[in-house]
Design a protein that fits this description.
Layout lengths: L2 H11 L1 E4 L9 E4 L6 H27 L4 H27 L22 H25 L3 H24 L15 H9 L4
Antiparallel strand pairs: 1-2
Length: 197
């Protein structure tokens, strides 16, 4: 089977994306026989929006150019992670024959002064990463397609790393709860609405 046949079959039958471990390289597409359930597609759309928000935030944080070199390095790495996450969750939609949102589709807005200082950036990073972690945990629990769960859990683990960094950098506890809360699709969607104009 050549690449074109693989992509074509994946688009017709639905596709699940599994994020490969660092040793295995980039994303791996796995064709599945049945179309994705409506709820899974809804989660994928929500996660696309979450990753667009995170990518936009980290892009603006880097552009603000007001952070120390080690914090700036973190902000750049986090943006790269979020862009890779976007490609992964957007692939769920394209594999199912849907068109994912892109950055130009959404106008994001942030609190006044969000990018005024390193401290304000890290404070908002902590808030956004809490939202992203809860969103991914909710998606892991709410997604019906088993082949999606591992990739979503891996992204949740990365978001937890971002949250730990932002928490430590703002003088908060790096971790405190044994079971971080998962957000329902409605809770996550409502929280993300606060960042759109």
């Amino acid at each position: 089977m050549n690449r074109a046949e693989f992509v074509s079959r994946g688009a017709k039958g639905g596709a699940a994306l599994v994020v490969a471990g660092a040793a295995l390289g980039p994303l791996v597409r796995t064709a599945v026989g049945d179309p994705l359930p409506t709820g899974d597609l809804a989660y994928a759309r929500l996660l696309v929006g979450a990753e667009l928000l995170a990518s936009d935030f980290y892009g603006q944080a880097v552009a603000a150019a007001n952070s120390k070199p080690h914090v700036l390095a973190y902000l750049k790495r986090a943006r790269t992670n979020e862009l890779e996450h976007y490609e992964s969750v957007a692939g769920i939609l394209t594999g199912a024959g849907a068109v994912p949102a892109v950055a130009a589709d959404i106008d994001f807005s942030y609190p006044k002064g969000a990018f005024a200082s390193e401290g304000s950036i890290l404070k908002l990073a902590r808030q956004l990463e809490t939202l992203l972690l809860g969103t991914y945990l909710g998606a892991v629990g709410g997604t019906q397609t088993a082949s999606l769960k591992q990739g979503l859990a891996q992204i949740a683990a990365c978001e937890a790393q971002h949250l730990s960094y932002a928490s430590a950098a703002t003088g908060n506890k790096v971790f405190s709860v044994s079971f971080p809360p998962a957000l329902t699709i409605d809770q996550a969607s409502t929280a993300m609405d606060g960042f759109t104009s």
